[in-house]
Design brief:
There is one protein chain. This protein is an alpha/beta fold. The protein has one domain: TIM Barrel. Helix content is 35%, strand content 16%. It has ten helices and 13 strands. The strands form three sheets. Strands 1, 3, 4, 6, 7, 8, 9, 12 and 13 form a nine-stranded mixed sheet that branches. Strands 2-5 form a two-stranded antiparallel sheet. It has a two-stranded antiparallel ribbon with strand order 10-11. β8 and β9 form a beta hairpin. 44% of the residues are buried.
Length: 327
């Protein structure tokens, strides 16, 4: 059995080229989530909305999140943008390095996490899953969140790093979930990666090929373009990103592998025209919904694939873990 899940980074809209502003943001895109969930419901899909402080702090947006929380096909997880989550510094923007929570001083980072956790609690919401803004996570983040009830971390993006100083480096991670022991007698914390992989195995070989061919001087030979037309594709199960264009090719490859889970993603701001770099026009937004329906209709027709939210996936994995141990 393979569980499939949809995840949405549920957050403000802003100009991604403007840096990481600390000023109060706008969250108009949240109005689009009910329509997104309706499509998922039509196909029996399940969605985890990783929701940040900017959304919870807006009364209108928060009412939408509260409505979604009553839907059995939806889960409200925790998301954090450290640059606009109190307590804030004195500057109007933060550096790229400090946009990653794991680079904060532990005490400062925990204070920001507690701000979001307290916002959830004050609205009678209890998150069980987490995704760090800009895919940031680390051991002290996970330990603190686990102590507050989080059992799943969906921050890992396999085969990926970023050029920014202090960025996460997941180049050697694969899409398989991993259990982190959090103490005897407690539910483990499960890292449930986003699904980025190659349409051919072995994945580690193709990752090395892509890395090597993207470096000078080999990039001038355009070997990746040749390979993608004839042999292999690097694909991200992403409803908005160019790497998600050929998601069916990866789904067909994954169908043969009997993975525990696969994880689609996108940003809520892409559901609003002009809300993100991926939704500059209404045609771009329509394309996201078209991808969503294509993905869900395909998966609904495969009996060995079943929908689940992120924390449900973690629960199923934990049960299987203890069954293997004979507990």
């Amino acid at each position: 059995m393979t569980y499939y899940t949809l995840t949405v980074d549920t957050e403000e809209e802003w100009d991604w080229d403007s840096g990481y502003p600390t000023q109060p943001p706008t969250v108009e895109n949240i109005d689009q989530l009910m329509g997104f969930q309706k499509v998922a419901d039509n196909y029996g899909g399940k969605v985890t909305y990783f929701t940040n402080h900017a959304v919870l702090a807006d009364p209108h947006a928060c009412r939408t999140i509260s409505r979604l929380s009553t839907n059995p096909n939806a889960e409200i997880g925790l998301h954090i943008h450290p640059w606009n989550t109190p307590p804030l510094g004195e500057t109007s923007t933060v550096s790229p390095r400090m946009s990653f929570l794991h680079n904060a001083r532990r005490e400062a980072g925990i204070a920001k996490l507690d701000t979001v956790l307290d916002a959830f609690e004050s609205r009678d919401l209890s998150p069980r899953s987490f995704r760090g803004g800009r895919y940031s996570t680390c051991d002290w983040i996970q330990k603190h969140l686990h102590a507050r009830g989080i059992i799943a971390d969906a921050s890992i993006l396999p085969f990926t790093t970023w050029a920014d100083e202090g960025a996460p480096d997941f180049r050697h991670r694969q899409p398989m979930p991993q259990r982190i022991e959090m103490g005897s007698g407690t539910h483990g914390l499960w890292e449930i990666p986003l699904t980025m992989a190659f349409t051919r195995k072995p994945w580690s070989l193709w990752h090395r090929f892509y890395e090597t061919c993207s470096q000078s001087p080999l990039r001038h030979l355009r070997m990746i373009g040749i390979a993608e037309r004839t042999i292999v594709n690097k694909v991200w199960l992403n409803l908005e990103h160019p790497l998600g264009e050929h998601f069916e090719r990866l789904l067909q490859a994954l169908k043969q592998l009997d993975l525990p889970c696969i994880n689609f993603t996108m940003h809520s701001s892409s559901l609003l025209v002009g809300g993100s770099p991926y939704s500059k026009t209404s045609a771009h937004v329509a394309k996201i919904f078209e991808r969503l329906e294509r993905a869900l209709s395909t998966l609904a027709s495969w009996p060995n694939f079943q929908p689940a939210t992120i924390s449900e996936v973690a629960g199923y994995l934990e049960e299987a873990h203890h069954a293997r141990l004979g507990n």
